[in-house]
Amino acid sequence: AMTSTNDIRRSFLDFFGGEGHMRVPSAPLVPQNDPTLMFVNAGMVPFKNVFTGLETRPYSTAVSSQKCVRAGGKHNDLDNVGYTARHHTFFEMLGNFSFGDYFKERAITLAWNLITKEWGISPDRLIVTVYHTDDDAFALWKKIAGLPDSRIIRIATKDNFWAMGDNGPCGPCSEIFYDHGEHIPGGPPGSPDEDGDRFVEIWNLVFMQYEQEAGEIVRDLPRPSIDTGMGLERIAAVLQGKHDNYEIDLFQTLIGETAEMTKTDATGPMSASHRVIADHLRASGFLVADGVLPSNEGRGYVLRRIMRRAMRHAHLLGAKDPLMYRLVPSLVSQMGGAFPELTRAQPLIEETLKLEETRFRQTLETGLRLLDEATAGMGAGAVLPGETAFKLYDTYGFPLDLTEDALRRQGLSVDKTGFDTAMAAQKAAARAAWAGSGAQADEGVWFDIAEESGATEFTGYNSDTAQGEV
Ligand code: ATP
Ligand code: MG
Ligand code: MG
Ligand code: MG
Fold first, then answer.
1. Which residues form the Alanyl-transfer RNA synthetases family profile domain (predicted)?
2. Which atom of ligand 1 is nearest to the CA of 201?
């Protein structure tokens, strides 16, 4: 019988629990200890202060399945969703952690035993990477896993060196890749076509062994630590004999529902729409369950972008009425057992999705018609004027990334500078109107402050600072 995604999560937690790790429930998606970060985007985030020594816990090793969202800031996988086999906006990161307890040897031994012995993955399908100078890790992989030199790849880029920021713990990484087979395009890690989907990174081990100050390594950590992260959906694909994350049980159920509701084929040319809807439904449901509501700024705007983008895809599938909220019961029945907050929030999630979709549908069609007119006659490679994208945003409620996503199939893009200029012009006009309204001088000051503090919370879709480095 096929191992379900729920079973795989449990198996991971049981394996490390059996090895003395404290089982720690997932923290909420809204970071509790890090104002620079928009959403928790890795399993180690809730443990940051434990790694730096600011906080102590009554255990020195832990295991978790952490809810993550990567839809903005430094790690933004939004544009990958629907188009790669391995990226989601919301996913679970399975992780084991050592806070100054065990180090490389035990971390590699545990990882290897779990995937090849407990789970029975063939070693022939596995390739690992190490940081180019990390001879210890290279030797340990050889000794523990018996891998030939050719399948332990030294990587010199920052991909294989992790740092918490400019100050604090850092160290080399080792990534484990699964080879899904020759029939899939893509090369091994470190090769020019490594971004293909043949060799999929399943597990990232981080060996924290140095301390940085102002971006320079200044000393060895007295007690080196371990942080690992494995995508639950990626390992589920491997263990369920699928190449693609969207073919695992969980997604097949959700996608089966959208296919049924819209009477469309989930595997044909519309498959990206089905995937986007299923993915964004999870992100939306979990974000609402953790207290985020759609709005026009900060976290709420990221959520609104995710919801509206999915809603355009529902429209593409021909849905005549709000659709997203009708998928919630299926999501809850699959994931509510592991995440009771999802079950508790079910009515709120349904209501929020229904309201947002009802509202957005009032302008969606007109906006899409305008977009069609504006792009009529444009050939691949052409650029939509920023003014038009801004009008879609301002009048029809189209987030910029939704417009970009809509143009993607035709090979068109948006003039983002023009969009920003139009946005700035509108803000200046609003401010001038405010100044001329007879409002008191301090109210004008308040307006500026509000705008600035808004900007600290959310500094843009592509900003490198919106999410702290993890
Ligand atoms: P990739 O190179 O494939 O984008 P990554 O190196 O960015 O992955 P890490 O930051 O190392 O990923 O995260 C640890 C693990 O979490 C990865 O090995 C992968 O299994 C999983 N993971 C990362 N990003 C995603 C995502 N967007 N969707 C699903 N799983 C993910
Ligand atoms: Mg990535
Ligand atoms: Mg990677
Ligand atoms: Mg990685």
1. 3-470
2. 18
Tokens of 178: 């699964």
Distance 159 CA to ligand 3 centre (A): 6
Structure tokens at 373: 């007119």
d(CA 125, CA 114): 15
What is the C-alpha to C-alpha distance for residues 195 and 185, in angstroms, rounded to an integer? Answer: 9
Q: Which residues pair with 178 in a beta bridge?
A: 126, 200
Task: Give 157 Cα–ligand 1 centroid separation in angstroms.
Answer: 16
* Tokens encoding 384: 């939509």
Q: What is the pTM of this model?
A: 0.91
What pLDDT sits at residue 464? 35
CB-CB contact of 44 with 51 (8 Å):
yes
Residues 6 or more apart in contact with residue 380 via CB below 8 angstroms: 410, 411, 412
Distance (Å, whole) CA 434 – CA 447: 9
H helix or E strand, kind and range, residue 236: helix 232-239
Residues 6+ apart with CB under 8 A from 90: 67, 68, 69, 279, 282, 283, 286, 287
For ligand 1, atom 25: residue with the closest CA: 87
Q: Count Cα atoms within 13 angstroms, Cβ side, for 111.
A: 32
The CB of 95 under 6 Å from ligand 1? The reply is: no
Which ligand is closest to the CA of 251, given by its number?
A: 1
Nearest atom within ligand 1 for CA of residue 203 = 18
Which letter does DSSP use for residue 197 in this model? S
Q: Is the CB of 93 under 6 A from ligand 1?
A: yes
Residue 157 DSSP one-character state: S
Is ipTM > 0.90 here?
yes
Instruction: Determine contact, residues 180/199, Cβ cutoff 8 Å.
Output: yes
What are 240-287's pLDDT values in tens digits? 999 999 999 999 999 999 999 999 999 999 999 999 999 999 999 999
Spatial CA neighbour of 408 closest among 316, 320, 322, 318: 316
Report d(CA 433, CA 163) in Å as an integer: 46
CA distance 60 to 50: 9
- The whole-angstrom separation of Cα 440 and Cα 430 is 16
CA–CA dist 253, 237 (Å, integer): 14
